[in-house]
Amino acid sequence: DVQLQAYGGGLVQPGGSLRLSCVVSRFSYAITWFRQAPGKEREGVSCIDSGHNSWTYADSVKGRFTISRDDVTSTVYLEMTSLKPEDTAIYYCAARAYRCSASRTAFNYWGQGTQVTVSS
Q1: Around Cβ 25, how many Cβ atoms within 10 Å?
Q2: How many Cα atoms are found within 13 Å in the side-chain-facing hemisphere of 21?
Q3: What is the chain written as a DSSP string?
Q4: Which residues contact 109 (CB under 8 A, 6 or more apart)?
Q5: Cα separation of 8 and 22, whole Å?
Q6: What's the pLDDT score for residue 1?
Q7: What are the contacts of 39-45 at 24+ separation with CB within 8 A?
Q8: Is 5 exposed, middle or buried (0-12, 13-18, 19+ CB in 10 A)?
Q9: pLDDT tens sequence across 25-38
Q10: What string of DSSP letters covers 74-107?
Q11: Which residues, at least 6 apart from 114, have a Cβ–Cβ distance to it below 8 Å?
Q12: Minimal CB count within 10 Å: which of 27, 64, 72, 82?
């Protein structure tokens, strides 16, 4: 089975930056970052596949968030810049075979999530 561990969340001021990491035990999978704020549905943010093709699903983060993967360390990153209070959420990484998806029901494996709080 695929194991995922998310790291890097924390408290940051508006306009600040964070880099989230997702360490994956098996790396030939598509990885999507999801986020879920209290009282809201979990939404797909960005995905990268094994060929390093990437998609951004959330219009609100385009131009601010960048997904990447390091094949040596088996780590997928989400670099977040110009953070806004509305980015506050628990961020999860999830894995599925082959193709990227923004649908949480399409994913077989999930990390534990890491809290990102953007506040003054």
Answers
A1: 13
A2: 7
A3: ---EEEE--EEE-TT--EEEEEEESS-SEEEEEEEE-TTS--EEEEEE-TT--EEE--GGGTTTEEEEEETTTTEEEEEE-S--GGG-EEEEEEEEESS--S-GGG-SEE---EEEEE--
A4: 1, 2, 3, 4, 29, 94, 95, 96
A5: 9
A6: 84
A7: 40/89, 42/92, 42/104, 43/102, 44/101, 44/102, 44/103, 44/104, 45/78, 45/91
A8: middle
A9: 877 799 999 999 99
A10: TEEEEEE-S--GGG-EEEEEEEEESS--S-GGG-
A11: 6, 7, 8, 9, 20, 90, 91, 92
A12: 72
Which pair of structure tokens corresponds to residue 47? 């995905």
Residue type, 99: R
Q: Which two tokens stand for residue 17?
A: 């930056």
- What would the pLDDT profile of 81-99 be if each residue is shown by its tens digit? 999 999 999 999 999 998 9
